[in-house]
Amino acid sequence: MRDLSEIVKAYDIRGVVDEQLDADVVREIGAAFTRLVGGPAVVVGHDMRDSSPGLAAAFAEGITGQGVNVISIGLASTDLLYFASGTLELPGAMFTASHNPAQYNGIKLCRSGAAPVGQDSGLSEIQELVSHGVPEFLGAKGTVSERDMAADYARFLRDLVDLREIRPLKVVVDAGNGMAGHTVPTVFEGLPVELVPMYFELDGTFPNHEANPLDPANLVDLQAKVREVGADAGLAFDGDADRCFVVDENADPVAPSAITALVAARELAKEPGATVIHNLITSHAVPEIVAERGGKPVRTRVGHSFIKQTMAETGAIFGGEHSAHYYFRDFWKADSGMLAALHVLAALGGQAGPLSGLMAEYSRYAASGEINSTVDDQAGRMRAVAETYRDRPGSRIDELDGLTVELSDGSWFNLRPSNTEPLLRLNVEAPDATAVAALRDEVLAVVRG
């Protein structure tokens, strides 16, 4: 009897290789996944970590042992795996631990058409099946075939966002030794873009810096290179290349909320009146701009399962999160950092001004970024903060996801507990930096006691 409770997360499976995740465990997960989704075949891809090819092969054995075929697409970004699942109309599995350190690996699973498999949509059933032992299949085994889908993926993205007529751009891309080093050259081939590559060598030990652009320390090399070569923009991808961060020509980071607003405006220009999803931590500029452009903004909880579910329910054309996950209806409602990057370059190259000037329209407020506090009593600290603001004149409180408080001067904050650590996460937005600092310090004084 296997216990997968330590490695089954909200949206994927992830753990330390050999200690928590090995070939035997993965083989059983593959068999259980096959029992869950059925179908004639499963698409399997993997990232550049040393452990990934072996784990992907063991997973394939679990699938074929259940009489189902495997289509191996080999080295892939997560959104390339989603593309394969969508175009082939097959369930899929991507072996990656995203931005986690080298000793980790994991599996992102999806049903046919890149539909997500999370804790409430299949992972719990897989965990249960493995814990009791997956029934043996007595029929003929499935087969494994290989298929390279990178060129098809690149063509598909370039058809969604046409960059052929943009002005020439110089763009620095930091792949962080992750999968963008594999996909960017193919996607950018033939575009009017002078590509300045950084850390494109696939290396799952991440020798230059962590492949986590959410941490400002991991943007330093990109920022220096943008200044050095006089680039129009810089792009930084995480390890499995499903998230993309942007810096402008001055090497200043562009907030993911501003990217969300920009892409939303571009999509609404194609489909006026459409719905756009944003999670509750994105800037208030996002719903404002969506409404101004004639769209319908819809607010959701944080997390891709909520975004994708709401997109399906509303037929939304696009969705964005503060964490630089961007979801596209025309990409099977899946997230693609590459597709968001192409939108930014198309917008930049379609006008004469610099990226900083272009993004000024979409960057209306000051923000704190996410601030973590270690606390012993998450619920107690949350209650204390709620009581502090409940009776303040003009304040509004909602609890869609954690605690969101909006104040009469236009400032607001969200405080959310971590699901996996004794942390409270605070995000503050206000009309200017001074107001952000004041509200941040006021809330943290209550949170940290």
From TrEMBL:
PANTHER family: PHOSPHOMANNOMUTASE. It holds the Pfam family PGM_PMM_I. This is Phosphomannomutase. Residues 370-445 form the Alpha-D-phosphohexomutase C-terminal domain. Transmembrane segments: none annotated. InterPro entries: A-D-PHexomutase_a/b/a-I (IPR005844), A-D-PHexomutase_a/b/a-I/II/III (IPR016055), A-D-PHexomutase_a/b/a-II (IPR005845), A-D-PHexomutase_a/b/a-III (IPR005846), A-D-PHexomutase_C (IPR005843), A-D-PHexomutase_C_sf (IPR036900), Alpha-D-phosphohexomutase_SF (IPR005841). One of its GO terms (biological process) is carbohydrate metabolic process. Residues 7-130, 152-250, 259-365 form the Alpha-D-phosphohexomutase alpha/beta/alpha domain.
